[in-house]
Design brief:
alpha/beta; 13-stranded mixed beta sheet
Length: 359
């Protein structure tokens, strides 16, 4: 059977088998019309390349074929490369409104170069925003990102499930939908974003790594930990510079609002050495999984495997419901997992986002 006589449904299934191989998909775009369309459709669905050159190529294609922009579901701003070439930022600004089915928009903490144009679509009185996001990550505090415009844009997104936010301004809490279930935020953003919402997953970060920052944050941390809005929280991730302060505050509570917490992610293995370790997990009766994504970060001493095994044994002994401990090994570029106290042989490849997924 010739490819020209194949049913469109069969061609689509054939090409979708290659959906994870972007090089193969690009090769198919140079073949016949049918394969070109299906390959281009998959290539356009997710635009997450890190380098500016690849973005430039795709955005030029979208500008020549605006109908293809309707296929884009995920767009991440570039992180590296020459953004001045080809006026990339202008292309991004013009292309975003065409992506009417966009569901995920991500801006990294640092962008290459300095965008000379505002990146988010302009929201004016009476105007209709071209898309409704389910995931919006806006973690860059650079002044050229125009915090006020980001705030106004955030207020137009009524279907958000996952928000990453660090803008230094009070977010429009009343306009953020109650459907929000996952939050990535700095301490100063959490009270207004969390209030009145049933967040299930929280990635809590600090933007100040200094000891002075610890002291100035203590009252804010105490206030957050005592909020009643953690009743449905299942997953908590703490950055290294917050972990000790937050966990110590959790220990001091008479009644813990974290009773439904199942997964705790902390960078440093020092958690397993804290004096209040046993007391802490008596307040967290449902924790079944500990994750250490960067156990040797920030100058921590390298812990040998025998010592690590001893710490993990202690964890399984003192945490009654513990089922899994996942530790990242840089030399393996992956995680080793202990299940019910036994070290499994395989190396697991888990992205940061997969930490928040069901086992």
């Amino acid at each position: 059977m010739s490819i020209h006589t194949c049913p469109p449904e069969l061609i689509r299934l054939m090409v979708e088998d290659l959906s994870s191989d972007r090089a193969a998909l690009r090769a198919l775009t140079f073949t016949c019309k049918q394969l070109n369309y299906e390959a281009t459709r998959l290539l356009c669905t997710s635009v997450t390349m890190k380098d500016a050159t690849s973005h430039l190529m795709y955005l030029r294609m979208l500008s020549e074929n605006p109908c293809m922009a309707r296929l884009v579901r995920i767009y991440h701003f570039p992180e590296t490369g020459d953004t001045e070439r080809g006026k990339l930022w202008t292309l991004i600004r013009l292309s975003l409104p065409l992506m009417v089915n966009l569901r995920e928009l991500l801006s990294p903490r640092t962008l290459p170069g300095r965008p000379k144009t505002r990146l988010l679509p302009i929201v004016e009185d009476g105007s209709v925003i071209p898309f409704q996001l389910e995931r919006f990550i806006w973690m860059t505090k650079a002044p050229y990102h125009d915090p006020q415009r980001a705030l106004v844009f955030l207020g137009t997104q009524h279907k958000l499930k996952h928000l990453g936010w660090c803008v230094v301004a009070d977010p429009p809490s009343a306009k953020i939908p109650r459907t929000l279930s996952r939050l990535d935020a700095f301490s100063y953003c959490i009270p207004s974003l969390l209030s009145g919402r049933s967040i299930q997953e929280l990635r809590w970060s600090s933007d100040d790594n200094s000891s002075a920052g610890y002291s100035s944050s203590l009252k804010l941390i105490e206030c957050i930990v005592h909020m009643s809005d953690f009743r449905l929280l299942r997953v908590l991730s703490l950055s290294t510079h917050l972990a000790d302060l937050v966990l110590h505050q959790m220990c001091r509570q008479d009644v813990s609002p974290f009773v439904h917490l199942e997964v705790l992610m902390v960078d440093s293995l020092c958690l397993l050495k804290y004096d209040y370790f046993s007391q802490l997990f008596s307040k967290l009766p449902r924790v079944t999984r500990l994750v250490f994504p960067a156990p040797y970060a920030h100058g921590a001493h390298l812990i040998t495997l025998p010592i690590l095994k001893g710490l993990v044994r202690k964890a399984f002994k003192e945490i009654g419901n513990l089922q899994y401990v996942d530790v990242y090994f840089q030399e393996l570029s992956g995680y080793r997992r202990w299940r019910y106290g036994l070290l499994l042989p395989e190396v697991l490849d888990m992205s940061a986002d997969s930490m928040f997924l069901e086992l």
